[in-house]
Amino acid sequence: MLLNLKKINIAVALTIGSFVFAQHYAAHSHNDYEQKVPFWYALEAGATSIEADVYLVDNQLYVSHEQKDIKKERTFDNLYLKPIRKALELGIIKDQPVQILIDLKTEGEATLKKIVSEISKYTDITASKNISFVISGNKPSPEKFSSYPDFITFDYQSLQNLTPEQWKRVGLVSLNFKEYSGWNGKGGLTVEDLPKVKAVIQKAKAFHKPFRFWAIPDGKTSWEFFAHAGVDYINTDHPKECADYLKKLDERTFRNTLTSDVYQPKFLYENKNIPVKNVILLIGDGNGLSQISSSVLANKGQLTLTQLKNIGLIKTTSADNFTTDSAAGASAFATGKKTNNRFIGVDPSGKAIPNMTEILSEKGFNTAVITTDEIVGATPSAFYAHQKDRGMEKEIASDLITSKLSFFAAGGKSKVSGLNNFKVAENTKEIAESKADRLAYYFSDKGVPQVLKGRGNILAETVESSLEFLKSKNKPFFIMIEGAQIDSGGHANNVGTIVTEGIDFDRAITKAIQFADKNPGTLVVITADHETGGFSIPHGDMATSTIEGDFTTEDHSATLIPVFSYGPGTENFMGVYENNEIFHKILQSLKIKE
């Protein structure tokens, strides 16, 4: 039965996990005047709070870190008021309010009086709802807050309560972080400091005013901590980097609720000299070590995959490129030869090479392919087709008709016609019970939906049923099972897709390992064609299954890929070797001469 995409509701995704959308945090450009281009650089970067240290000297307001470094052209008017007016005129400041934090460095009342006088000259600024001025440093006492114009608010640097009238004039609550912790921004806060800092933030936030720490460590780890801890304005000397990081923090942070029930392998047939009869090759497309790690950590620290003991590493470079694509990577697995990117089952000259399913079919094996991609996708097609470009879908579909496959399950029914030699199953139960010589099962008419978009547990169910179908033939078999959409998450830089597709892939792995435990002579090999996204996991929380991911690319990377193996023949898959060796090691395990 095809998955009905029209009936898949977005509510399904909410039962699987969610991206963390909670805080309203922003970058505060600390000592902004020290940037090469004050104000404009922070504004363009997306910082919504901008700080200027101001001195009153000879009735002029200057901006400088130290009074001795004052330059006559660097006035508050030149560096901030005139640029603010220009930004308003150009419509640059309209969607996101901007706060100007003015740190008074000279005598408070006289300096503030001059500031009020200068700002008052710009009626367009004082009339704007998108510009606010917050006075810090040598500010007046709270009792005097109300004596200043409404366009002036104050930076309150205490946790003592104020009167309701005084709170109305507070624009920001700020505290010195160093009074609560000496954390340098690496790793995490100590067990002593963490509760203190969280308590301070909670108390400050109870005043219902924006909150800022100053004197904080300045880097991604600290930005992430303070943002998720509830700090509204993150102090930084790197406004562009900080603003860019904070803008994408929510979309890179995923809280998972999908689970893979961890199965404990029995290890009954390791190193027992049992002949290998069946081979289950599982390929997690784009599933590098960080992708695996994200699924492990989001699944409470364990997967069925991580229960396995035998691990190797493969190098994935293709014949013509430092970084492989799925076509060349899968072709290396399927044929034993490296080829060019985009090539399917042909050598670099374009000549067809016998693939695993063809070779084993000649030896009396049943062969099968399962994928959460379309059946004409690069990885599955490498195990039955021979074409010079992965985009030649019509030609690849024709190769499917003449292939040696006994069974396949995939999306993309609309791309295949004339497949009269395959019976089509309507559901997974029918797969397990079928007596057909050749069987097909379609997940969807076109692309297969992601787990986050309602695919359900169909991959693991199909794997379980297909293994029963193949077992019923009373012949040895080879099956390739692809978790295709881990790769999609990498290309889209989507953490939730990577995590949930990885966990779903592990549910398929579980079915394979359980089958191997019940059927002596079954070798299970689990790997990936390449890593996608340059994915890393800088932060997260195992208690809440929360993962923050980061990316260096929207394409593949050339990092080494792990190979897990289980059952008889696993000794062949240890070590570090080229990806095309997977093919040769499988045949070696089956004791089939090439």
Q: Which blocks of ≥5 consecutive residues have pLDDT under 50?
A: 5-14
Name the CATH homologous superfamily of the largest domain: Alkaline Phosphatase, subunit A
Strand content: 15-25%
Helix residue percentage = 25-40%
Q: Which strands sit side by side, in order, in the main sheet?
A: 16-17-15-14-18-12-19-24-13-25
From the 3D coordinates, which CATH architecture of the largest domain would you assign?
3-Layer(aba) Sandwich
Based on Cα principal axes, name the global outline.
elongated
Largest sheet: 10 strands, mixed
Précis, in short:
With 594 residues, the protein is of the alpha/beta class.
Explained architecture:
Mg(2+) binds at residues 285, 379, 482. This protein has 594 residues and is of the alpha/beta class. The chain folds into two domains: 23-247, TIM Barrel, CATH 3.20.20.190; 287-589, 3-Layer(aba) Sandwich (Alkaline Phosphatase, subunit A). It is built from 20 helices and 25 strands. The strands form four sheets. A ten-stranded mixed β-sheet has the order 16-17-15-14-18-12-19-24-13-25, with helices on both faces. Helix 11 (289-298) packs across helix 19 (495-518) and helix 17 (458-471) packs parallel to helix 19. It is elongated and about 95 Å long. 50% of the residues are buried.
